[in-house]
Design brief:
Order of helices and strands: HEEEEHEEEEHEEEEEEEEEH
Radius of gyration: 22 Å
Helix content: 10-25%
Structural class: mainly beta
Distance between the termini: 46 Å
Strand content: 35-45%
Largest sheet: 7 strands, mixed
Number of helices: 4
Number of strands: 17
Shape: elongated
């Protein structure tokens, strides 16, 4: 239910509140029908308060970037995630109607990040009630770039997010800025983990690295208190399944990496240097 999503958001927001200095709203609004219809939007909480507003207004399309305070960002998130009798929220002078359906949430590790984030995060998403895709005609306005259609304009406005044309709604994103896994290197039986402590929030925070590795039926696992920024351990096996998790106090998951060579999974953020014989056996 929508109320449950808002409750989860509130709990996570308060836990991470000290990490945030501002928020950024990025939106694309279709105006062709004479009323505002949201194409897509993201609301990302930031560790940096310096955000410049920007806007590109085309006939029938408005592209918006707006910096917000943390509290204003939270208020907008509440309107989006906890709909009232007339579900919706406001972007500038535009009133956007949400579908009233329950938002969903998903967690992403730092190597799966998007929206310009380079840390792990939780995404909360709610659909809008009136889908809009923008014009298929050439977009042109004085002093602005020319695009073949609204889709290309929107994709560039959101930058690296290639899937921007796939969603019709608003993403509210709570990043984890305290620390992250910078890299995981598996070289034969040696596991090396590089941690980036970003010093946001509690600078005295203690972290642990938990690992799980399996080669056939043999398993190596453990948890180690992190003293520096590099953790190394001889696993005693050359695993084909590996999981590394960065934990804060009370077993709070901060970031993670996993790889399953048996299924052909080799995600970014995990460097694997296999002995030649083991590599041939996997082919």
């Amino acid at each position: 239910m929508a109320g449950d999503s808002w409750a989860f958001f509130q709990e996570e927001f308060e836990r991470k509140r000290s990490q945030y200095m501002g928020a950024k709203l990025t939106a694309a609004v279709d105006l062709e029908s004479g009323s505002a219809r949201l194409i897509t939007a993201t609301l990302v909480f930031l560790e940096d308060a310096k955000q410049e507003d920007d806007e590109s207004a085309y006939p029938g399309l408005e592209l918006i970037r707006k910096g917000l305070s943390v509290e204003d960002g939270k208020s907008l998130a509440k309107l989006a995630l906890l709909p009232g009798p007339e579900p919706g929220f406001r972007i500038k002078e535009h009133v956007i109607r949400t579908s009233g359906s329950s938002p969903w949430q998903s967690k992403r590790s730092s190597n799966e990040s998007r929206f310009g984030i380079r840390t792990s995060s939780t995404e909360y998403f709610v659909h809008i009630s009136d889908s809009a895709y923008g014009s298929n005609e050439v977009l042109a306005a004085e002093g602005l770039p020319v695009y073949p259609n609204a889709r290309e304009a929107v994709k560039e406005w959101f930058g690296e997010w290639e899937g921007v044309d796939s969603w019709r709604g608003i993403f509210v994103v709570l990043p984890e800025y305290r620390a992250k896994i910078e890299d995981v290197v598996l070289e034969g039986q040696l596991l090396r983990v590089l941690i980036d402590r970003r010093q946001r929030g509690d600078a005295k925070a203690h972290y642990r690295v938990a690992y799980f590795a399996r080669e056939s039926s043999r398993v190596s696992k453990g948890q180690v208190e992190l003293e520096g920024d590099v953790f190394e351990v001889d696993l005693g096996i050359a695993p084909t399944v590996l999981s590394v998790t960065l934990l804060a106090e009370r077993a709070e998951v901060v970031d993670w990496r996993s790889v399953d060579l048996e299924r052909g999974s080799r995600p970014p953020g995990v460097s694997i240097r296999l002995p030649a014989l083991q590599f041939e056996m996997l082919l």
